[in-house]
């Protein structure tokens, strides 16, 4: 394909119908998950009011409200992945820390890991963003489109940082689960450890897939869509 322009729309060609169809399918999928999230919030709001809103303002209540409203809002509005990482990973670090009894040395180690990973991710995402340029694609196609003329995608090294953090947290959680395998474990801690391990495995696999896709490359110049909430609502 010829390089898209930053000042004029790309001319309609034989590939346009497939692009519009794929974009609309993606929008419908996102809207479906958005309504599923809203539905979940609606049917559990009474329990949230009863069990959470009546609590004093301490760490458990703050963590729940951040995860329930701020993190989900950032995902819906499609903010920077590093910003999402900043909040989501902090909550996950707190969960892992609780499995180890919030031991002071362990908390310091996790905190240092978090700060170093965040700094590296910010720098690497800034570098990654410089590999792309904002362009106009087909007229009436929603979203913001980025273009790179290279034969392969720039590797998202900030995702490698996330991958390393998730890998470390997954191993720490797995160790705690295995260490209590033959012991009587607090039911709440058991659920926390089990759910955390399942989550870490899923996220780890997703991150590996993203990085592997970038390393393999596409062999052609690449366009990607940075969608907005309004573009999804235009579906």
Automatic annotation (TrEMBL):
Transmembrane regions listed in the UniProt entry: 28-45, 65-93, 105-128, 155-175, 196-212
InterPro entries reported in the protein's UniProt record: DUF6533
Domain DUF6533: 28-70
UniProt keyword Heme, yes or no: no
Keywords in alphabetical order: Membrane, Transmembrane, Transmembrane helix
Taxonomic superkingdom: Eukaryota
The UniProt record lists the keyword Transmembrane: yes
Stretches of the chain forming a coiled coil according to its record: none
Name under which the protein is recorded: DUF6533 domain-containing protein
Organism: Piloderma croceum (strain F 1598)
